[in-house]
Amino acid sequence: MQPLNSKKAVVIGGSRGTGRAIVEAFLQEGADVLVVARKPDSLAELVRKWPSVRTLQADMTDTSTLETVFQDAPDVVVLAGGAMPPSQSIVDLDWETFSTNWNTDVKASYLLTQYALTRPAKAGTLILFLSSGAAIGGSPISGGYAGSKRMQMFLANYAQLASNRGGLGLRFLTLAPFRLMKNTGVGDVVVPKYAAFTGVLEEDFVAGMTQAQTKEDVADAVVAFARQWPTPVEGNVFVVSSDGIATESDMVKGAPFWTKR
Ligand SMILES: NC(=O)c1ccc[n+]([C@@H]2O[C@H](COP(=O)([O-])OP(=O)(O)OC[C@H]3O[C@@H](n4cnc5c(N)ncnc54)[C@H](OP(=O)(O)O)[C@@H]3O)[C@@H](O)[C@H]2O)c1
């Protein structure tokens, strides 16, 4: 297992929510961290708490952002940012709203993949996308969200294949938080909407989410992968719940075997 205190990490979408938990986990490990997000206030608040953190105010869907992301040859790049999914019935969505996460989450994953494979990024770089448990079972009030998060899983597989064929020595992973998480942007908006959609009280909806992980569980899983890459046999797609980490093949079988790392 590699220590992270000499490592450079970039967390895109690391100013709030799950990304911020990942940033704090990397900082606690002694890593040098660059955080990318658009809004200055949450970046400034992060720097007040962690003066050593470096920040870039930029949009992850701009190609130019990637020049700065890869400027210092990072060891780990985590794409934690994502757009707020729509929370309406499919009948109420126009195409613009339906495709929100395709034009942000998937576009940013695609640009990152293209950049890393074509420049290319230095051998030994880990590139990880945060996906969602919605990619497994769907999300009926989230428009194109679940499909976009599934696309991130495919992208990690395609990119790994391209890296292997080109002998680039890169590692592409997708990690899906299994359940919605409170105290995150997406969780705090979507949980009440799902409770209303299913006609239950919010606390009952939350209680019904078995194996619910926290954002800190997600951060621990990212740190574990940064310390030690999963083996090729384990694949490139993983799900994290409160029970630990499951592989894509376990996920597809529908009976995940959860392991602690
Ligand atoms: N939260 C959950 O319950 C949950 C469950 C499963 C999967 N996920 C996935 O986990 C990821 C994080 O979710 P979250 O709820 O923790 O997020 P969040 O709290 O809403 O935070 C989103 C972060 O991404 C940044 N961001 C958003 N759009 C960006 C853009 N275009 N360019 C640069 N930065 C951008 C935000 O900063 P700015 O707005 O300042 O740019 C912020 O730092 C998402 O991909 C989400 O789909 C979340």
From TrEMBL:
CDD domains membership: SDR_c
Keywords annotated in UniProt: Oxidoreductase
Annotated GO MF terms: oxidoreductase activity
Matching Pfam families: adh_short
Family affiliation: Belongs to the short-chain dehydrogenases/reductases (SDR) family.
Protein name: SDR family oxidoreductase
Lineage: Bacteria, Pseudomonadati, Bacteroidota, Cytophagia, Cytophagales
